[in-house]
Amino acid sequence: MSAAFLVSRPSVARAILAPAPWPRPLRVLRTGTGRVEEIPVEAYVAAVLPGEIGGHAPAAALEAQAVAARSYALARRTRHADLCDAVHCQVFRGLPAATEETRAASRATEGLVLVQNGRIIAAPFHAVCGGKTARPRDVWDDEENPDLMPVEDDACRDAPGYSWSFSIPRRELPHLAAALGFPVARFLEIFGRDDSGRVSMLRLAAPGGASRVVRGFDFRKAASEIWGWASVRSTAFEIAESRAEYLLSGRGTGHGAGMCQAGAIARARRGESRDDILGLYYKGAHVERSLP
Question: Is residue 102 located within the same domain as residue 170?
């Protein structure tokens, strides 16, 4: 275990800042019913792992996901009640979703969280990075996002979603452009990239010279709402233009920040530990025990 990932002494760990005393139960808004359930933190962690990384992933990957999920839940406890059960918080399908393996991962990591500058971070994770992770601040504008370094990652190379393509027929571009507030657009081009090579800005142009620049994140979100999540799987793509279409050729699935879940699973299968995995994907943060 590297020095950066040693668990702190309890006297130090008590100083970590969290939105409220813990371990009180998490209040989880069930979006289907509108009811709020109170769930013990560790039971919640065990139950969200199947919906996020799978209930039967290798132990080291499950433990890394448990630390990330616990950190995210505790850092984001003011979104709804605390959290909701949907994707933009964490997928919670109820306590029966937990498996023997996910309960073991929660027990093995009980109380462990990712910390930066004395605060528990909302540790991001995603399905497949496509070869390199993204810096969170390049994905979201939220100033509370952790400052994590992008890292090269070859472990997800064989995962579904590592490479993909999607065609936007020219006749459908105005539909997408309307969702981005510029319905007169008839042309599309990449306008900027971030440090990881992902598309940070695109330009929509109209006949006569009018144009609008939109964020890559917003472009992907609008495309997903129109054509589904498997259309523009990430913002790591190239565009080839023809008379009939804009063909996007990309890598990875998801926003790309933080832990690559496919990479974590592959690394666990080849013998890397939980701390190896966390140390790679969360460069700039470290693990501490939040309460004794």
Answer: no
Same domain, 176 and 91: no
Record the pTM: 0.86
Q: Residue 108 is which amino acid?
A: A
Q: For residue 19, what pLDDT band results from cuts at 50, 70 and 90?
A: very low
Cα–Cα distance for residue pair 58/41, rounded to 1 Å: 22
User: Strand 199-205 and strand 211-215: pairing?
Assistant: antiparallel
The model's confidence at residue 143, banded by pLDDT at 50, 70 and 90, is: low
Retrieve residue 66's tokens: 């448990």
CA distance 245 to 20: 51
Q: Residue 141 domain-assigned?
A: no
Given a contact cutoff of 8 angstroms between Cβ atoms, the answer to whether 89 and 76 are in contact is yes
Maximum pairwise Cα distance, the chain: 66
233-288 pLDDT per residue, tens: 999 999 999 999 999 999 999 999 999 999 999 999 999 999 999 999 999 999 99
Query: Whole-angstrom Cα distance, residue 136 to residue 121?
Result: 12
**Cα(130)–Cα(253) distance, integer angstroms:** 7
Residues contacting 197, CB < 8 A, separation 6+ = 132, 236
